[in-house]
Automatic annotation (TrEMBL):
<keyword id="KW-0460">Magnesium</keyword>
<dbReference type="InterPro" id="IPR000836">
    <property type="entry name" value="PRTase_dom"/>
</dbReference>
<feature type="binding site">
    <location>
        <position position="398"/>
    </location>
    <ligand>
        <name>[4Fe-4S] cluster</name>
    </ligand>
</feature>
<feature type="binding site">
    <location>
        <position position="449"/>
    </location>
    <ligand>
        <name>[4Fe-4S] cluster</name>
    </ligand>
</feature>
<feature type="binding site">
    <location>
        <position position="361"/>
    </location>
    <ligand>
        <name>Mg(2+)</name>
    </ligand>
</feature>
<keyword id="KW-0004">4Fe-4S</keyword>
<dbReference type="GO" id="GO:0004044">
    <property type="term" value="F:amidophosphoribosyltransferase activity"/>
</dbReference>
<dbReference type="InterPro" id="IPR029057">
    <property type="entry name" value="PRTase-like"/>
</dbReference>
<keyword id="KW-0408">Iron</keyword>
<keyword id="KW-0328">Glycosyltransferase</keyword>
<keyword id="KW-0411">Iron-sulfur</keyword>
<feature type="domain" description="Glutamine amidotransferase type-2">
    <location>
        <begin position="16"/>
        <end position="237"/>
    </location>
</feature>
<dbReference type="Pfam" id="PF13522">
    <property type="entry name" value="GATase_6"/>
</dbReference>
<dbReference type="Pfam" id="PF00156">
    <property type="entry name" value="Pribosyltran"/>
</dbReference>
<keyword id="KW-0658">Purine biosynthesis</keyword>
<feature type="binding site">
    <location>
        <position position="299"/>
    </location>
    <ligand>
        <name>Mg(2+)</name>
    </ligand>
</feature>
<feature type="binding site">
    <location>
        <position position="452"/>
    </location>
    <ligand>
        <name>[4Fe-4S] cluster</name>
    </ligand>
</feature>
Length: 478
């Protein structure tokens, strides 16, 4: 069976969501299901849950959304004390069932299961080392390499914590991991903490998840983040912490801007609040005379509210999003393609006609969707269309677990802001500055990875990987 792939997205795509829980006596598979359900925005290609009851491992994973992969009967079969769950968007390894997670390795101490968010930049080297030691690698993901590296260290005589730390020190790149073993549950982040991982508590038990929204859905309380370079080992006796690498925090700033759910919390506040501040600062940096501010739903809504509040311009919903549009492999006719994005976004002429519009979005990657939105607004009678973006221009690709185009496909890498404005046919276009983006965090502005905006990669990228995406000598002047 073949199908035509959907057109390339006009947003960066997240890598994965991970979840883990140790709770003897509880329905851990069902708790994990709901945790993954809350993390569905982080990946929609495959989902999986592995449950351990001592040495006994039961697992189910398949292609599709969490609600498509699991049902009540399947969850009832996943009985145990510890569960590890994963929902995936592929960045390393193709979108096939063999690459679905969690991934497993069998060791002298029993099975180890792993769920991974992020990307290794030395995956090719690690794979060669494992193959040289006659490991059988069935998938094409760096996640499988990590779990086999752990298994190898354990089989060489190390315990679970010692063996995992030994394996982690062989890995370079971005990784937030949830790891299940017969002895307990582990969670860890790379030394830069590029991808998030939080700890929660539920009835005295511990929960690990990519975001706090996955804690809220099951009634767990946020305790703290897993720190960069930290490994936590959770057993029935409690939680132990091991700092295996010197922390140099560089959390992905795009988690704050777009990827994480707006109700997830970072630095003691919801990301909705942070995104409103982005809009407020954007209004200060790039004011314009207009009649109404509208968002590109849903990701542009908080920033549009902030922009409207700071500018004094009326906020209204001018585009209605169909929230029930998922991936479809039914190819539209040419006439339907020319109709553009109306399958997902439909303009409200009552709000738009005769008005000077400020439309706010969180980012522009290729510019294809933005151009269609602008055209739809003009077709609905907009007198002027001014676009404001609540992040800086995306000029560099990500190598740490976000699926972005090669540099020549990033519109801001090949065109100036004025050229982009002409391309998407707006009356004016302005982006938030890097300084404004970091100011809105109200934290140490050195604690974030901003490589997609600045080209400053905190983890060195091997030349052979850089060549696959960094195809320009320099970015376009703005």
């Amino acid at each position: 069976m073949t199908y035509a792939a959907p057109s390339a997205p006009d947003k960066p795509e997240e890598a994965c969501g991970v979840f883990g829980i140790l709770a003897p006596g509880e329905a851990v598979a069902k708790l994990t299901y709901f945790g993954l359900f809350a993390l569905q925005h982080r990946g929609q290609e495959s989902a999986g849950i592995a449950v351990l009851d001592g040495d006994r491992l039961t697992m189910h994973k398949d292609m599709g959304l969490v609600s498509q992969v699991f049902d009540e009967a399947l969850l009832n079969e996943l009985q145990g004390q510890l569960a590890v769950g994963h929902t995936r968007y592929s960045t390393t390894g193709s979108s096939r069932k063999v690459n679905a997670q969690p991934v497993v390795s069998r060791t002298r101490l029993g099975p180890v299961v792993l769920a991974h968010n992020g990307n290794l930049v030395n995956a090719a080297q690690l794979r060669e080392e494992l193959l040289a030691r006659e490991h059988t690698l069935l998938a094409t993901t760096d996640s499988e390499e990590i779990v086999h590296a752990i298994g190898e260290a354990v089989d060489d005589g190390k315990g679970w914590v010692e063996g995992t730390v030994h394996a982690l020190k062989r890995c370079r790149g971005a990784f937030s991991l949830v790891i299940g073993t017969p002895a307990g549950l582990m969670g860890t982040r790379d030394a830069n903490g590029v991808r998030p991982l939080v700890i929660g508590t539920l009835k005295g038990r511990y929960v690990l998840a990519s975001e706090t929204c996955a804690l809220s859905i099951i009634g767990a309380k946020y305790l703290r983040d897993v720190e960069p370079g930290e490994l936590v080992f959770i057993t029935e006796s409690g939680l132990e912490s091991y700092h295996w690498a010197k922390p140099e925090p560089r959390m992905c700033i795009f988690e704050m801007i777009y990827f994480a759910r707006p109700d997830s919390r970072v630095n003691a506040e919801s990301l909705y609040t942070y995104r409103e501040r982005l809009g407020e600062i954007l209004a200060q940096e790039a004011p314009v005379q207009a009649d109404v501010v509208i968002p590109v739903p849903d990701s542009g809504t908080p920033a549009a509210i902030g922009y409207a509040r700071a500018s004094g311009i009326l906020f209204q919903q001018g585009l209605i999003k169909n929230h029930y549009v998922g991936r479809t492999f039914i190819q539209p006719t040419q006439t339907m393609r020319e109709a553009g994005i109306k399958m997902k976004l439909n303009p409200l002429p009552d709000v738009i006609e005769g008005k000077r519009i400020v439309i706010v979005d969180d980012s522009i990657v290729r510019g294809t969707t933005s151009r269609k939105i602008v055209q739809a607004l003009r077709d609905s009678g907009a007198r002027e269309v001014h676009m404001r973006i609540s992040s800086p221009p995306v000029t560099h690709p990500c190598f740490y677990g976000i699926d972005t185009d090669s540099q020549d496909q990033l519109i801001a890498a090949t065109k100036s802001v004025d050229e982009i404005a002409r391309h998407i046919e707006v009356d004016s276009l302005a982006y938030l500055s890097v300084e404004g983006m970091l100011k809105a965090t109200r934290t140490d502005d050195q604690g974030f990875c901003t490589a997609c905006f600045t080209g400053d990669y905190p983890i060195p990228i091997p030349d052979e990987i850089r060549r696959t995406k960094l195809v320009l000598e320099k970015t376009a002047a703005s």
